[in-house]
Request: fold
Amino acid sequence: MGIGDLFKFKEGKTTFVFVGGKGGVGKTSISAATAIWLAKHNRKTLIVSTDPAHSLSDSFETYIGPDPKLIMSNLYCVEIDPEVAMARQQEELKNKRSLIDSQQAMGLDMLEDQLDLASSAPGADEAAAFEIFLQVMTTNEYDVVVFDTAPTGHTLRFLSFPDLMESWVGKILKVKSKLSTVKSTFKNLMPFSDDENTEQLELEETKRKIEEARKVMSDPEQTTFKMIVIPEEMSIYESERGIEVLKKYNMNVDSVIVNQVMPDIDNCDFCQSRYKLQQKRIGLINQKFHDKTIFQIPLFKEEIKGLNKLEELGQVLYENKSINQVEKDAILL
Ligand SMILES: Nc1ncnc2c1ncn2[C@@H]1O[C@H](COP(=O)(O)OP(=O)(O)OP(=O)(O)O)[C@@H](O)[C@H]1O
Ligand SMILES: [Mg+2]
Reply:
């Protein structure tokens, strides 16, 4: 069985693939190669970067930006930019606020402070980015969405957002219902009173989307997580801890991809000792992740950048070709 066989597709539903692991192990390269390979196999694919230090643009050697951009047939790319997302949200809020007078706005601030809402709010920039994430998770617009994630710690925080947001939205809804009981007393201080129903509906819609996203994320038929490791202890241990935390979120890690595996080169003591060390670590990987499907990717001679090189990486990973074979194919083309 090849790693490509692990992809499951449900008619009319998006398949989600998260690619994660420690910093620098090859998450962006493997996500990009995966997305290209899927697009070439006629799947309408979106690759999303949730890493604030965006490198998808560097990997594809073209500017991507905060809105989905078609970069080849069937392949769309987007880099979720928390700052842009937050700026857009603030603009919307400003437009709303300009509809009410400043006295009313002060009233809102005062009430929010009093009810300690602000302090329990998730980071505004992360929350704005999460809105976009929710949209992708709940619209079934693509056949496949590949998430190029940030290094483990940041990603785990991002994936804890459904819980965080749900409790926050729940709190707002509770506060709003309390407010409505004192509404008549503070009638003049109540902002957005005309829009209150719309606001309530929006919040309930967000809550519904969070529940849906959580369901999708924990359904192994729809969402899988590919853990990328390199044959080094620190990467292995971090991934092991990551898999444990993902389990708590009911996320299914179906495969471990061992990247940058060195070839066995004679007449080079340095290469030989690196090779032997790596083989020892691969033994550890096989032992620790024995319940996952494990694949290996060799270390390429060059950096993996640009569509052609990424396509070669996809062939090595999904078509079991050797680097020599894909390089020969590339020359023949
Ligand atoms: N198999 C490989 N052979 C050679 N170079 C590789 C291989 N895999 C990745 N690289 C190179 O390693 C570097 C890091 O890869 P990449 O950016 O994909 O890692 P990352 O896990 O996304 O990093 P970050 O945690 O910073 O987001 C890049 O320069 C990439 O070209
Ligand atoms: Mg990256």
Remarks:
- The pocket of adenosine-5'-triphosphate (ligand 1) is lined by residues 23-29, 51, 55, 151, 259-260, 297, 299-300, 303-305 (CB under 6 Å).
